[in-house]
Structures are given as C-alpha cells and as structure tokens.
Specification:
The protein is of the alpha+beta class. It is 19% helix and 12% strand. The N terminus is likely disordered. Bound molecules: heme C (2 copies).
Length: 690
C-alpha cells in the first residue's frame, strides 16, 4: 500500500521463511523452508514480525532454561564488574534508550582514517549544539555550500589505555597504563599528559530492536552464525567450544544461526577500547565473574521485570551467583566436566579473540593485540581451566543475546497506526509518512516493519543485490548496507573493510572470491545474483541501515555521530548527502537532492517522532534496569584535569566524573528520557538522574 515499485532494486515480493531453518548440532546444515508470502518493503507494525533467534531445536542443544539465561544476560549487561576497571558495563554505553547521551569526553579523532588530531574539541571536551553538525553548510539545502568539515566522531568513552597483567577478582584487574601521547604510540586521549578514557571510533547504536538485524555493528562484522567465541562465525577456523561426550571433553566447532547478537556480545568484553585492559581472555573474565556477587556494586529494584525475584533483599546485587545462573540456564554437557586442558589451538584462539575488533584501533590494528600481553599474564600454553570457564564466551554470548532479544520496542504510535488506529498519528505526522514513503525515498532503505533493509527477513530473502549506482552502471552490494555520503569513503570503509583473518567483511566480495562457505546460515549462491571476478562491487563506505524506532532519543546520529538533531538529518538527505560527489563510485542512487520544502521537512521530523515507544521513554519493562554509575568525562576541562595515583609507572590517569542512574522497576520511571543535548548539563559526580 505504501510501497511503490522501484526501478532499480529487484522486486521485493518473494517467498521466504525464517523459522524452519535447522543447523544440526555443528556445521552441517539441512534446510527446511517454511513458505511465507511477505512483501518486505511494505510497512507494518513490528508486532507482526516474529522475533528472530535460533530455532528451538538448535538452542536447546545449549540452553535448558531460557528464563534463567535471560536473567544471566540482563545481569551481565548491567554489571560494572565485567569491565577490567570494575566500572565499565555494556550498559555504560547503552543506558539511554539502548544508546548513549553523554556529552563530556565523547569525542574520538578520525582514528579509522589514521588521524589522531581532535578537531571539534580536545579530549574531555563537553559537546554543545554549536559543535553540530560536524559538516556545516551556508545553505543546509545545498551540498555545494560547505562551510566547514571535521572528521571527529562523537561516540562513547570506554576504558583507559592499558595492558592486562592479572585478573583482580572483586578488585580491578592489575594493568599497566600506557602513554596516550601520539609520539609515544598513543592515540592522543590525554590532557596535558594525563590520560583520559579512550573514545570509540564509531557512534554507539541502540541495542533496542538490534535483534532484528541480520548482522550487527555498523560494518556488519558481528555475523549471523555464532561460533561460541568471537564475532566472526565461520570466518574463524579455530573457533570451538568444549562439550562433554561420554565423560570426555571434545572440542567441537559450532555455527548457531540467527545469533548475530551473540557474535556481537563476544566482542566488547575483551576490547581494549571498550571494557578491558589489552590482553585479557574470556577464561580470565569468567574466573573473575564466578568469584564476584552479580551486580554486587549496584542496586536491583525489587520490581525489576527480570531480576526482581533474584534481588538480594539485604543490599546490593543478586542472591544467586553467576555460577548458579549458568548451571541453571545451560546444558550440563557444556559445564559439568572437570578441568579442560588449553591446547595450543585454544591458546591461538584466545589470541585471535583479543585481536578481534576490526574498527577498534586498540584491538585489530594497533597495540600489541596479536602478540598478547608479552608474557605479562594472559592465557598460558598448557593451562588447566575449569570446563565452565573454558566455555565462558559461549554462555556470555548466548545469554546476552537472549536478554537483548527481549528488548523489542514494537508499540509506538506508528505501530498502532499500522494496526488500524488511524488517530495514532496526528495530521502532520501523517503528512510526514507520505514524505517518508514518497518524495523522501526513505522507505527504499528503511523498509519493512523493521524500518531497515538490513533486517533478518529482508537479508535472508536476498543477501546480495544488483543495482544501478549513483554514477550509472550496475554493481552488486550487500543488501541493507548503503553508502549515503555521510563521510568520504576512504575515511571509514564500513562493510568494505576486512575481518581479522584478512577476509572481506562484505558478503558480496566473499562470494566474488568463491568463499561462500564462510557465510553460513544457508547462503545459497544459486539464489543470489551472481558476482563474477571482474564485476563491480559497491560496498566501500557502506554502512548498515539503522531501524528508526526511538530515534528521537538515540542521537547523535550516523556512524560518526555528526548530527545532533533529526532536523539536521533530514536536511542532510534533502541536500543529497554531504559527500555524494566524492563517493560517486559507491554511492546509492537514491542519495540526490530531494527538493523538500521547509514544511515537508518539518512533517518528516514529526513523523520520526511517532516512532518512539513510551515504554522506552519511561523505562518500563522490558526496558527497566538496575542502578548504574557511568564514567562521564573528567573534572576540569580540555586544558587541565586532575589525576589520580596510578600503577602505570610515569603514566598519569584522570579522575572520573560519574553520572548515576537510579534502579527502575517494571512500572518505569515518572520522568521521560530526553533527546540528546536536550537541557543536559554535566552533573556533579555521584549525582543521580532519574
Ligand atoms: C565503550 C562503549 C561500549 C561498551 C562498553 C559496549 N558497547 Fe556496544 N557498541 C558501542 C559502539 C561504539 C558500537 C558500534 C561499533 C561499530 O559498529 O563499529 C556498539 C555496537 C553494539 C551493538 C550493535 C548494534 C547495531 O545496531 O549494530 C550491540 C548489540 C551492542 N553494542 C551491545 C553491547 C554489549 C552486549 C556490550 C557488552 C558486552 C556492549 N555493547 C558494550 C559501544 C559500546
Ligand atoms: C540509500 C539508502 C537510504 C535512504 C534512501 C535513506 N536512508 Fe537513512 N540511513 C541509511 C543508512 C545506510 C544510514 C547509516 C549511514 C551512516 O551512518 O553512514 C542511515 C541513517 C539514518 C538515520 C540515523 C539513525 C541513527 O541511529 O544514527 C536516520 C534518522 C535516517 N537514516 C532517516 C532517514 C530518512 C528520514 C530518510 C528519507 C529522507 C532516509 N533515512 C533515507 C540508508 C538510507
């Protein structure tokens, strides 16, 4: 009804099925398609889409109690003890509508472009409206009126730069702080020689509705099949888990389909940018967590929708241990055996895990990733570890996936409108919807009930697409990933980049190399457009299309975080992108000046505001959570910051400011979450915001 036939993209009405897929035990695959007729480009309430995930027959091989696994996942997601510094949780960067609205020390220089100079503001800068957009125009409707341009990225602060020495249990890990001075090998995250927290090189997307993405991360590197250990699925030839078979431990390779979130979750805990000192292993993380009280430094609301029944009535945290939760949630064949010997192969996998973040300059490309912590700890050759520790990455990935699969936001005014409640959108929003599906061409990429062509349903239906490009001529690309000219292509290749094994991240390029066995989850070359050696491929500078629900609350926008308001985003599209000319070779043909009037642009913004779910806005179940204090920049400014005593020899590190969020139960908070920068100031340390 809302979809228009589209000239270049192939017809979207096809038969496909998701849930009849079976991957038996390990790598063998037998396809049993169920047939659904779905027009994936037509809009629909998200309530009509089944939440993707491994078929029960596959999941039951590992998980015996889903509820316990979700409890485990929620505790791990919010627990600051997962970080090497015992301050950094997953939620530290995903606490605000699944994303991050902090404003102090949130700038990264153009690291992926090889640039370590800060342009918008220095380390510990406090962002304000004047800083945005990062590419400014004299006339926002005209791309040729560019006035200034910065390649910095607004993202999320993680940990201080340091090498791992040994696990600390309840206390922070022992680590060696490393200089951030560029001439001493650092990335420039320091103020006058005092280290500040490193900031990620791409903006933080929301975890809410991420379960609908076929692959995760902006560049899709968290693949759909989970290998039990890292984000790279079948691409990692050394990935395996330990299974007890007749009392004997065996190493088995696994490929668990529809598990991009599990692949994703196995990245950050060891990332030397996000949560870890460089060189920690999952075994060491497991050992730490098996020792501590879950959420032991945080408050859990008695009415928490998931953790309430486990909350310790006498104080912080849960009254059960992580070991209890793992044993309850997972099949004994994956934890009950005696110690496992870590072979050289296991050791090499651990090294790969450490180096496994493409797009993390501290992991894949820089630092001493591959060489590990140079004898300063880390997994040693033949070391005996407990079975439950050896499979910790498997438990971590699957439980986080199951928790995040519950973070489904499908009750926005727009969903209600599509369910037939015609008054759910006001007249301006209805006009905005017409722009979205018509002159704005938004729906061509933000299609389907998920509002993204990178959805499981759409990509499974068609992994590769052949299309006429911005400068004419046909090219093949990864479905759902587009170059829309946010930044010059060479600055960040996106899905045009490589995995740590040297393979292209792009499925189109993998197919071109004839390595489709690496792609997993039923990739069928006969079903896809063929891509021959000489064929043109348009994947460089292309990024995953975000679903747009709750976009009101998840700014700043785009992979570089360079736009602070939805009006700026709409102006970006209206002028035909910022780097369309420069990116012609890979640019999507829909990125062209749109000729929208001021009123149409405002209507489109009003429509985008109809995509907010009040359960997200008021943190009601399933979006309720324990208390959390997040590092929020450092006292002082961009010129001086006070330091605290550190173990890193001469290297000084800055004192943290903390911003604290109260625990919220299933009925939510009376106060609404606000858009990025809306009335926000940097609170004093320890101040609670509700
Ligand atoms: C230091 C901040 C930080 C921490 C800590 C962190 N993340 Fe993220 N997260 C990011 C950034 C930045 C990205 C985007 C990276 C990219 O695409 O290259 C991201 C991406 C994601 C995505 C992908 C969403 C999408 O649409 O592609 C998910 C899911 C996610 N994180 C979950 C987690 C989980 C689970 C943890 C803990 C195990 C975690 N994050 C820890 C910053 C963080
Ligand atoms: C050619 C495909 C395409 C079209 C057409 C398109 N988008 Fe996008 N959109 C994307 C991609 C890809 C991204 C991420 C790009 C990046 O960050 O480099 C994105 C990002 C966004 C974001 C930022 C979301 C976030 O979380 O950062 C918003 C908002 C958005 N688009 C809205 C729209 C609107 C409104 C329209 C119509 C005017 C539109 N898009 C048209 C592909 C498209």
């Amino acid at each position: 009804m809302f979809s228009k036939p589209y000239l270049f993209r192939r017809s979207k009405t096809i038969a496909f099925g998701l849930f009849g897929v079976a991957v038996a035990g390990a790598l063998s695959s037998g396809t049993v398609w169920t047939q659904d007729q779905v027009d994936v480009q037509s809009l629909a309430s998200l309530k009509t889409v089944r939440v993707p995930g491994p078929p029960d027959a596959v999941l039951n091989e590992y998980v015996r109690d889903k509820r316990a696994a979700i409890q485990l996942g929620k505790a791990l997601f919010w627990d600051i003890q997962v970080g090497s510094d015992r301050k950094q949780a997953c939620a530290s960067c995903h606490f605000h509508a699944g994303a991050d609205n902090r404003i102090k020390n949130q700038l990264s220089p153009g690291l992926l472009a090889g640039d370590k100079t800060f342009q918008v503001g220095g380390p510990n800068h406090e962002l304000s409206e004047e800083d945005f957009p990062f590419t400014k125009h004299l006339n926002p409707d005209r791309a040729d009126s560019r006035r200034s341009d910065k390649n910095d990225v607004a993202s999320s602060q993680g940990v201080f730069r340091a090498d791992f020495i040994s696990a600390g249990g309840k206390d922070p890990d022992t680590c060696l702080n490393l200089s951030e001075r560029v001439d001493e090998g650092g990335n420039g995250f320091h103020v006058g020689g005092v280290n500040v927290r490193q900031v990620e090189p791409r903006n933080t997307p929301t975890t809410i509705n991420a379960v609908f993405n076929f692959r995760n991360f902006w560049d899709g590197r968290a693949v759909n099949d989970f290998n039990g250990g890292d984000p790279f699925g079948l691409r990692n030839p050394n990935a395996f888990v330990f299974k007890a078979v007749n009392g004997q431990l065996q190493q088995i390779a696994v490929a668990i389909p529809f598990s991009s979130l599990a692949s994703q979750a196995s990245g950050p805990p060891l990332s030397a940018f996000e949560m870890s000192c460089n060189g920690r292993s999952f075994v060491e993380l497991g050992r730490t967590l098996l020792e501590v009280k879950p959420l032991g430094k945080q408050k859990v609301h008695q009415a928490d929708s998931v953790l309430g029944p486990l909350a310790d009535p006498r104080g912080n945290g849960l009254k059960v241990s992580y070991g209890d939760l793992i044993r309850k949630a997972f099949q004994p064949a994956y934890w009950k055996n005696g110690p496992a010997k870590m072979t050289p192969q296991e050791r090499s996998m651990d090294l790969i895990r450490r180096a496994s973040r493409v797009g993390d300059p501290g992991g894949a490309n820089g630092g001493n990733g591959g060489r590990g912590a140079g004898g300063a700890g880390g997994p040693r050759g033949q070391q005996s570890v407990e079975h439950i520790e050896a499979n910790f990455a498997l438990f971590f990935g699957l439980s986080l996936q199951l928790y995040q699969a519950s973070l489904v936001s499908d009750d926005t005014p727009f969903d209600r409108f599509l369910e037939g409640k015609r008054t759910a959108l006001d007249p301006q929003q209805s006009r905005g919807l017409k722009v979205f599906t018509g002159q704005g061409k938004c729906i061509n990429c933000h299609g389907g009930a998920e509002l993204t062509n990178a959805s499981v349903r759409n990509v499974l239906n068609e992994r590769l697409e052949r299309m006429v490009m911005g400068n004419g001529g046909e090219a093949v690309y990864d479905n759902g990933f587009y170059n829309i000219g946010v930044r010059p292509t060479a600055e960040d290749l996106g899905v045009g980049g490589k995995d740590p094994f040297g393979n292209p991240l792009s499925e189109t390029r993998i197919a071109q190399l004839g390595k489709t066995r690496l792609l997993g989850n039923q990739f069928d070359p006969d079903k896809e457009p063929s891509v021959q050696a000489g064929d043109r491929v348009a994947v460089d500078g292309a990024f995953k299309t975000p679903g747009l629900r709750n976009v009101e609350l998840t700014g700043p926008y785009f992979h570089n975080g360079g736009n602070s308001t939805l009006k700026q985003v709409v102006e970006f599209y209206n002028r035909g992108g910022d780097f369309a000319k420069e990116n012609q070779a890979d640019l999507d043909p829909d990125i062209q000046p749109l000729g929208l009037s001021e009123a149409q642009q405002d209507d489109l913004v009003a429509f985008l505001l109809s995509l907010t779910d009040d359960r997200v806005r008021f943190q009601r179940a399933p979006f309720d959570h324990p208390s959390l204090c997040v590092p929020n920049g450092h006292p002082g400014d961009e010129v001086t910051v006070p330091s605290v005593p550190s173990e890193g020899g001469d290297v000084k590190i800055a004192e943290d400011l903390l911003r604290c969020i109260a625990p919220v139960g299933k009925r939510g908070s009376p106060t609404a979450l606000k858009p990025f920068l809306d009335g926000q100031t940097t609170p004093q340390t320890g101040q609670w915001d509700r």
